[in-house]
């Protein structure tokens, strides 16, 4: 049985860039529903004793869509919670900053490219910074897809661009949400 990941910040900690109301719905309803559904689906199955990442890989390769979607969404949301902080939006420490500059030219250019990819994701999905063979890249994925199932490398940070992540605060203005998130919430 998987349990909800405890947060090291309060539901209002990310205001005004992400409201307590958005966060409470997102964490307490959307994320919880994926988790409850996953527990229900794996109960008594071969998946019951696997770790979350293994469930994602196995269910993806077997085409077990319900298990895959819920397991991946649990993992994605936990990764997203961990990609944010009330004191976010600042450049990372030098080792990682050097890699970002080597991969994207500058931190400002990284933000520009990340915004373009996150904005360009048609419909629901995610945008990730991944590291593979020492090189960083930005990848957008649809629905529940993530770097584990698609074998994109090690995920460093992600943003949720499903509408439920921003609609209460930004309505249809995904670009404003991404700008705010990059400037104030992104935690490396
Ligand atoms: Mn979400």
How would you describe the overall organization of this protein?
- The protein is 49% helix and 12% strand.
- Strand 1 (125-132) and strand 2 (135-142) form a beta hairpin.
- It is of the alpha+beta class and 188 residues long.
- It has a 3-stranded antiparallel sheet with strand order 2-1-3, sandwiched between helices.
- It has helices spanning 20-42, 52-62, 65-81, 94-104, 107-120, 167-170, 174-185, and strands at 125-132, 135-142, 154-160.
- The radius of gyration is 16 Å and the shape is globular.
- The protein is built from 7 helices and 3 strands.
- The chain starts with 19 loop residues before the first helix and ends with a helix.
- Bound molecules: manganese (II) ion.
- Manganese (II) ion is lined by residues 26, 30, 77, 160, 162, 164-165.
> Residue ranges: pLDDT <50 for 5 or more in a row?
none
Sheet of most strands = 3 strands, antiparallel
Share of helical residues: 40-55%
Mean pLDDT: 97
Number of helices: 7
Strand/helix succession: HHHHHEEEHH
* List of distinct ligands in this structure: manganese (II) ion
> What is the CA–CA distance across the termini?
29 Å
Which class best fits the helix and strand makeup?
alpha+beta
Strand fraction band? 5-15%
In total, the number of strands is 3
Instruction: Characterize the overall form.
Output: globular
Strand arrangement, major sheet = 2-1-3
Round the Cα radius of gyration to an integer and report it: 16 Å
């Amino acid at each position: 049985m998987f349990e909800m990941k405890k947060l090291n910040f309060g539901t209002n900690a990310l205001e005004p860039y992400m409201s307590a109301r958005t966060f409470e719905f997102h964490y307490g309803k959307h994320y919880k529903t994926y988790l409850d559904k996953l527990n229900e689906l794996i109960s008594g199955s071969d998946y019951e004793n696997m770790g979350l990442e293994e469930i994602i890989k196995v269910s993806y390769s077997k085409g077990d869509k319900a298990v895959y979607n819920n397991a991946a969404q649990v993992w994605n949301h936990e990764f997203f919670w961990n990609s944010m902080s009330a004191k976010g939006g600042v450049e990372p420490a030098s080792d990682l900053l050097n890699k970002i500059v080597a991969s994207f030219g500058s931190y400002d250019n990284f933000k520009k490219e990340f915004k373009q990819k996150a904005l360009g994701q048609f419909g629901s999905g995610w945008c990730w910074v991944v590291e593979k063979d020492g090189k960083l890249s930005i990848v957008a994925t649809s629905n529940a897809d993530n770097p584990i199932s698609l074998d994109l490398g090690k995920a460093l940070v992600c943003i949720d661009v499903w509408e439920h992540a921003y609609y209460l605060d930004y309505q249809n203005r995904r670009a404003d949400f991404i700008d705010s998130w990059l400037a104030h919430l992104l935690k490396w």
